[in-house]
Amino acid sequence: MEKTFLMVKPDGVQRNLVGEIVNRFERKGFKLVGAKLMQISDELASEHYGEHKERPFFGELVDFITSGPVFAMVWEGENVIKTAREMMGKTNPAEALPGTVRGDFGVTVGKNVIHGSDSPESAEREINLFFNETELVSYEKQD
Ligand code: CMP
């Protein structure tokens, strides 16, 4: 079954949005198979955002994502990668529709509350970067 990596960013944790965000994906019907509150190191942040290394905002990105705890999650379900991206809304909250996480709770493109993998390749890479195999749980869930 398809899996994706989602992360409530430091602004979302600070604003007590972890429960709200978990709730949205639970109600949708996806299965939570891994979760942890963690502090990201500079090394992990640089690796995670490696594809943005040349962007002018890379330093800002690393500073922000390491500025406080994040809530890292792995969710499982049919088409979960694409559907979760739709539920998150556009990267820039100003363009994200109401009803999406960023449309409802975000204001700026840097502090946009949530991160989610954008492809099967990045989902696999990000899950392996943040979670050990032993931290992921396999279980049956009623629909
Ligand atoms: P995310 O999905 O975590 O992946 C890359 C992040 O870069 C993105 O969310 C935004 O938060 C951030 N980002 C994109 N554009 C800018 C920008 N112009 N300035 C600061 N951060 C940005």
From TrEMBL:
Which HAMAP family would you find in this protein's record? NDP_kinase (MF_00451)
> Which Pfam families does the entry link to?
NDK
Instruction: Tell me the leader sequence span.
Output: none
Which CDD domains did the record assign?
Answer: NDPk_I (cd04413)
User: What is the species listed in this Swiss-Prot or TrEMBL entry?
Assistant: Ornithinibacillus halotolerans
The entry's active site is: H115
In its UniProt entry, what is this protein called? Nucleoside diphosphate kinase
Chain sites annotated for binding ATP: K9, F57, R85, T91, R102, N112
InterPro entries assigned: NDK-like_dom, NDK-like_dom_sf, Nucleoside_diP_kinase, Nucleoside_diP_kinase_AS
Query: Which reaction equations make up its catalytic activity?
Result: dZDP + ATP = dZTP + ADP; a 2'-deoxyribonucleoside 5'-diphosphate + ATP = a 2'-deoxyribonucleoside 5'-triphosphate + ADP; a ribonucleoside 5'-diphosphate + ATP = a ribonucleoside 5'-triphosphate + ADP
Q: What does the record give as the function of this protein?
A: (Microbial infection) Catalyzes the phosphorylation of dZDP to dZTP, when the bacterium is infected by a phage that produces the substrate for the synthesis of dZTP (2- amino-2'-deoxyadenosine 5'-triphosphate), which is then used by the phage as a DNA polymerase substrate.
Which processes are annotated in GO (biological process)?
CTP biosynthetic process; GTP biosynthetic process; UTP biosynthetic process
Q: EC number(s) in its UniProt entry?
A: 2.7.4.6
